[in-house]
Write a structure and sequence with these properties.
This protein is mostly helical. It folds into 2 domains: 125 residues, no CATH class; 140 residues, no CATH class. It contains 11 helices and 2 strands; from the N terminus they run αααααααββαααα. The protein has a two-stranded antiparallel sheet with strand order 1-2. It is globular, with a radius of gyration of 19 Å. The N and C termini lie far apart (41 Å).
């Protein structure tokens, strides 16, 4: 299982790097497809994948990404509003086929997966986005690695004993420190080879550390949903890892935070 996970991770990284190098459009299309798969995985959890509510989820995600890629302006609120209106219309017109729980189960995947993952495309579309987009993975996957290593080495105090018994408080802080360290390295490289930026090392260290916090929440949130519904993995798409939601759970939460830190806090 270990070597299967390693091999899958290597292939996944190569694919991601290739997509990013292909450009913003390729990144946006890829995120749209990945979002559809993730939405399908969540809808299966709520047993809505083959219902009218599920079909609305797929359709609105496609519409959202088309608007994002081909139409100027931010249409996020518009899509959320229209989507909610269609869901409520289906709820009323088919009553009592669906319960209010079904409505929430159908509404969540588009927001949780579709919109959140779109921020990877938004970062890629920035100036120097080809480099900056890797900050998402510095904050999430590097955090995962360091949290695992530190937790395995010195972890004694459980972070969330019921939800994730293997995670430790020591690993939690180790992951943040590791993301900050790689953020420093990232900043030094960015400043030297990409574009001169004031306080680059400090800025990227902060992004790495702050971005690692939602990565932990994303990981635990995805685990909580699985535990609530008594499932081990969201899917079998990625050998050794599970589905899109199993591998991208931390990235989903990190991408928007990194985007807003880059654009609003540091002015990229």
């Amino acid at each position: 299982m270990f070597w299967t996970r390693v091999a899958s991770s290597v292939v996944l990284v190569i694919l991601i790097v290739g997509i990013f190098f292909a450009g913003p459009m390729a990144t946006g299309i890829a995120m749209g497809v990945v979002s559809l798969i993730g939405i399908n995985e969540l809808l299966k959890v709520y047993k809505l994948e083959n219902t009218v509510l599920g079909y609305f989820s797929y359709i609105i995600n496609i519409v959202y990404y088309c608007l994002l890629l081909f139409v100027e302006g931010d249409h996020t609120v518009l899509c959320i509003t229209v989507y909610l209106l269609f869901l409520l219309s289906a709820y009323v017109l088919t009553y009592p086929k669906f319960k209010d729980f079904d409505m929430m189960g159908a509404f969540l995947p588009f927001i949780y997966v579709g919109i959140m993952l779109s921020y990877i495309y938004r970062i890629r579309a920035l100036e120097n986005g080809l480099v900056l987009v890797f900050l998402v993975f510095v904050s999430s996957w590097v955090n995962d690695v360091f949290a695992y290593l530190v937790g395995r080495t010195i972890g004694k105090h459980k972070l969330s004993p019921i939800l994730s018994p293997k995670k430790s408080i020591e690993g939690f802080f180790g992951g943040i420190a590791g993301a900050a360290l790689f953020g420093c390295i990232f900043g030094a490289v960015f400043n030297k080879f990409v574009a001169e930026t004031d306080l680059a090392i400090l800025k990227f260290a902060v992004i790495g550390a702050v971005g690692a916090l939602p990565a932990v929440i994303g990981d635990l949130a995805a685990s909580a949903i699985k535990r609530n519904h008594d499932i081990k993995d969201y899917g079998k798409l990625i050998p050794g890892h599970g589905g899109i939601m199993d591998r991208f759970d931390s990235v989903i939460f990190t991408a928007p935070i990194v985007y807003y830190l880059l654009t609003l806090a540091w002015g990229f």
